[in-house]
Amino acid sequence: xxxxxxxxxxxxxxxxxxxxxxxxxxxxxxxxxxxxxxxxxxxxxxxxxxxxxxxxxxxxxxxxxxxxxxxxxxxxxxxxxxxxxxxxxxxxxxxxxxxxxxxxxxxxxxxxxxxxxxxxxxxxxxxxxxxxxxxxxxxxxxxxxxxxxxxxxxxxxxxxxxxxxxxxxxxxxxxxxxxxxxxxxxxxxxx
Length: 191
Hints:
Strand content: 15-25%
Largest sheet: 5 strands, mixed, barrel
Distance between the termini: 41 Å
Oligomer: single chain
Order of helices and strands: EEEHEEHHHHHHH
């Protein structure tokens, strides 16, 4: 198993990076946030990886953090969810929001992925809710709906999904209320 890779980016697209390490070029599929946050071509990068072994291919998936990789592994542990679908889910929103969605039973994020319908999204929620709540993740306070409203409001103001994701990562966890989160996110986006 290849658990980590560090090397120079020699090519990148919207779905993958090619990383040269010790003279070999590794094609590494990554979430959109990882690719957008990655350095320029020619610069060094370090990623946590997951090697998916199939009958006809060995696919390498790369993540900025161990938490992203762990969440990816939880997703592919759900029957019917392959690595490509899991990667698409991770590209939708920050991990904390996805964990809250699963904890609260909200399937709307997962159904935005091509190939994942309501039944599959419900299966993800059912299979992962207990695992995540055992790790301390839930949405008992109902803050997820507020986060979805914040995302929708910022998108209507013309901000991209990537900009919103990064801003929400910086919003203080103590900030409560949709309006307060929007104000704080706007301050961050205005920097």
